[in-house]
Amino acid sequence: MSQPLKSINLLSPGFKGVNTEDSPVAQDVDFAEIADNAVIDRKGRLAARKGFSTITTNKTALGTDYIHNIHEFYDSAGNEVIFSTGNNKIMTGTTTLVDATPGSYTITSNDWKIVNFNDKAYFFQRGYDPLVYDNANGLRTFTVANGGATNATFKGHEVLAAFGRLFVVGNATNDNIIYWSDLLNGNAFTGGSSGNIDVSKVWPNGFDKVVALAAHNGLLVVFGEQNIIVYSGATSPANMELSDSIPGVGCVDRKTVQSIGSDLLFLSQDGLRSLGRAVQEKSLPISDLSRNVKQDLIGQIQAKTSPLTSVYSPENYFYLLGMVDSTTVYCFDLRGTLENGSYRVTKWPSVDFKSFARDRNGDLYIGSTSGIGKYSGFTDAGSSYRFRYFSPQLTFGDPSRIKFLKKIRPTIIDGSSSDIFLKWGYDFALSTNSATFQTSSGTPGFYGESEFTVAEFTEGDLITRTSLNTTGYGSVVSVGLETDVNGNSISLQDFNVLALVGRTL
Predict the structure, then answer these.
(1) What pTM did the predictor assign?
(2) pLDDT tens-place string over residues 190-222
(3) Are residues 409 and 472 in the same domain?
(4) pLDDT interval class at 282 (50, 70, 90)
(5) What DSSP state is assigned to residue 277?
(6) Which partner for 359 in 72, 163, 184, 266 could form a disulfide, CB atoms 3.0-4.6 Å apart?
């Protein structure tokens, strides 16, 4: 008498994101060994990310460089300018990039921090005199007095607009002095209620230096490389008081700090952290928001040779962390954390995404070697990109027995017909076997009423169900698929995997 087939139902394949930390045979089947160019969609399905829709048609000013920063300036009169930096220039425009650098100003680096304050945009970069822009006078230089020091100028590398002032970090020799402007005057750092503070005296573990500033819940948050200090009373900074200190947890790059409303996210030496958790857990917290990709992420941090980039998009429910050196973007889904405290994570490999910015309308801008684009559509500048998913290693409840894989039944949600490459492998080898099928197009039946393998949800998405015979055997099995995203969305509804479980190895 023949043995019955055993079935594993992946009802939400990849729903929990990538897990590169735990043993592939011990993971929940809702994790993914690979989830490339993917997001978790609003229905909880693993789906292809959107693409890069190019705006720039003339990037002469950018040359062969890429967009390092994008910033939206707008004032109370409704004037708007999109600034970008690259090729040692400050540029305006999106369709055509126009060099707006003041004529007498020489730039040899592109690591600008730009903020809006009191109807002006302020530009700061280490080693450079600051720049200021307003609609009436354009972009121009100004010299800022160094907290009252005679004939000195500071050339800060970090700036925060908050509490009715500009807060600027650093001068030519010291990264531990925070200067603040007079009230409602970003050009005045002497006189009035301007001032400064040397935070080198209050780091909890001795020496550190300021990397980033943030405002959160009425507090001034100062990120060092290895520590965090928090001040209350920043509305009257001369009377600020040290409210809290967090030793052993710092920030690796100011561009990774993002306010997500109820909390602050930042990248530390050992992964993605939140200020709220760091305050609660204090020194060396045992949990982190990137726990499921921790070693992978730490390796990227240690190898970096250029600034990182990040953005928070409440419209898409994600925090993007870009690794410019490795052309990799980590996508953290912010709808909630998993049981182990980690966000769900997917990866966008080999992308030309060098910088991000979100405008006040919620549009997500992307800077690249092509210029400026938007996160929209389902191509990258008109070219396809590959969506990939692979499950963890499936044991069918007994890793000691041989599995003869018989069938894989995927359910795919697709906007139109796509070539799908179904993959499976044995004994920790991915995609040693494959089969190809096409999602259906044409006029589908209604959901639940179709006679064939295609149905239609009320939103107009097509659902394709198919069943493919498989071959081969091994002690553990991995299944997945790949497809080139070229104009249409695609998501995974479920996988049904059937195997004959044989003798003990």
Answers:
(1) 0.94
(2) 889 999 999 999 999 888 999 999 999 999 999
(3) yes
(4) confident
(5) H
(6) 72
